[in-house]
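Shikimate dehydrogenase (NADP(+))
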Amino acid sequence: MELGLIGYPVQGSLSPWIHHQFLDQLNMTGSYELYEIAPDQFEEQISDFKRKNLNGFNVTIPYKQRIIPYLDALSDSARAIGAVNTVVCHNGKWTGYNTDGFGLTAALEERFDDLFYKDKHALILGAGGASRGIYYSLLQAGFNTVDISNRTYEKAVELTGLNNSDTITSPMTFDEAEQKINHYDLIVQTTSVGMTPNEKAQVIDLEKIKKGAVVSDIVYKPFWTQLLKQAYQKRARVHHGHEMLLYQAKLAFEHFTGQSVDAKGILGDFEKMIK
Ligand code: ATR
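Tokens:
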């Protein structure tokens, strides 16, 4: 199974480690290589890349949208999200998927399955690329409410405008989200705020959060973001960012191979590696 990752930059990516674990689980031979492509060479390099005949590859920043014109087919969810992080290559045909948001919901479901019963309300902080996939997957998971709060309010308006399900969804400012915070069972932080080296930064205050609510931060460096520390103090349940990374890889690998792999069993080793 010949796999890889394209992006810029890709050095230091944790994906090779994860995919090698999955290959080992299935006793499959193969490799997962990093392909760094400079933005001004994307068009020419992607044709060379096609000749490598990989079985599949992941796509990271800044190419999750730019890869789309090169695909032969696109899953419905990747089309709705407007971004691709996984490409399966079969007989020279490329099919695009997006496993980022579904990775998060799969990880949440494994840890906090009570969140997926009826009458649950979610809030997403941020309205960028990561938020988009997460929004789509929470709508699909059947949450009653999925609100979006963003520094630039217009972007939250734009994203909530894409909803065509029965889920209630409203855009809001960070101030409004703080006021309403005890309404939510799940809060997903999707901005880069709090990431190393700005570890003291926190996007909103959780003072009024409901006890037992789940706070998920997609930032995984540091392991304990300021937001998660406050959530823990307030007796909310915390969900660290590396789990989304691991589970999006699990779903990608399952698209590549058509076989199931176990992410839970390698979570402990993965955690040690990123800490
Ligand atoms: P990604 O693909 O990682 O989501 P992105 O598309 O650039 O990256 O989106 C970044 C998100 O982080 C946006 O929601 C952005 O808010 P704006 O839409 O207002 O720009 C948010 N963000 C980045 N830096 C921020 C900061 N210092 N305070 C609040 N929000 C911030």
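The chain has a mean pLDDT of 97.
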